């Protein structure tokens, strides 16, 4: 039976309690949720996404007060970040409690946790009465969903219910920060909370060396070089020379003036006419999907983003989509 599409919070919460799979909206992207404390339910998440077991899941809570159900302790710097940025697009990796199944953390000693800034998501988790493990609700390695329709497009037959919460406000996944015993936190994944905002609060953080390459993917599971990928080939273009004339090309561009787009391109997606990175992020995955689904195109050319604010996360997603 294909997944039910509903706005009924109680029904969705009931499904989670029963160990079923419920996709739900957050402020970043749609998540594919299951009771984090039930190994069977979590295993179904991996199966539905065809996700390898070495890639751990984020545990979602309805409030920071629930942290002590899943983490051993909250270091001072984590407390400071939580007070400032939760609910919001910041995921913290903290020492896990025994009760969290190894399947959730891929056997790692740390569990990734966050409180989403979407009232419906928090209410869903609260009513379910359990912490909710949720990766993005897309087949492994593919484009992340920012609407209920995106989820149904690829996972309708693998999951039980989609709770429609409208389009996602931010549009890129949360920033993942590892809290370590000594020294500043490590940025495992740039995301919806900017590096600038974090550093204004706690000072310099550490970046993963060689982020995006094979060795980085071992320290940061899930940071695989190829990810967020369209079916079509995606090329990051700094200019339009050397473009094969026989190809039908779609273009993903940040704003109007960043490039003069030649006329041979039929389908151009401009992410923000005014050059607003937040607006660009909220349109990013949906635009990439439209280009990917357009049967009249052979290849997608994308222009890079300025590397400030959400541009860091967007360039990270582009680089992985291009592999
Ligand atoms: O915005 C988001 O974070 C969305 C929404 C649904 O909350 N979720 C999401 O989940 O993007 P996912 O599974 O697509 O990405 C989670 C990332 C992966 O790169 C994973 O490797 C990392 O977080 N991660 C999860 N648990 C971890 C852990 N225990 N240690 C280190 N990294 C972890
Ligand atoms: Mg994902």
Brief overview:
It is built from ten helices and 15 strands.
Can you put this structure into words, describing what you see?
The structure is a single chain. This protein has 323 residues and is of the alpha/beta class. The protein has two domains: 4-207, DHBP synthase, CATH 3.90.870.10; 233-321, Threonylcarbamoyl-AMP synthase, C-terminal domain (Rossmann fold, 3-Layer(aba) Sandwich). The chain has helices spanning 9-17, 39-49, 76-85, 102-105, 119-128, 148-155, 195-202, 214-219, 277-293, 311-322, and strands spanning 4-6, 22-24, 31-35, 58-60, 90-95, 110-114, 132-133, 161-163, 175-178, 186-189, 206-207, 233-236, 249-253, 267-270, 299-302. The strands form two sheets. An eleven-stranded mixed sheet has the order 1-8-2-3-7-4-6-5-9-10-11, with helices on both faces. A four-stranded parallel sheet has the order 12-15-13-14. Helix 1 packs across helix 5 (119-128). The radius of gyration is 19 Å and the shape is globular. The protein binds threonylcarbamoyladenylate (TXA) and magnesium ion. Threonylcarbamoyladenylate binds next to strand 5, strand 6 and strand 10. The site of magnesium ion has 3 residues, from loops.
Instruction: List unreliable stretches of 5+ residues.
Output: none
Helix content: 25-40%
Distance between the termini: 35 Å
Range of strand content: 15-25%
Radius of gyration: 19 Å
Could you give a short account of the major beta sheet?
11 strands, mixed
Number of strands: 15
Mean pLDDT: 93
CATH class of the largest domain: Alpha Beta
**Strand order in space, largest sheet:** 1-8-2-3-7-4-6-5-9-10-11
> How many domains, in number, for the residues?
2
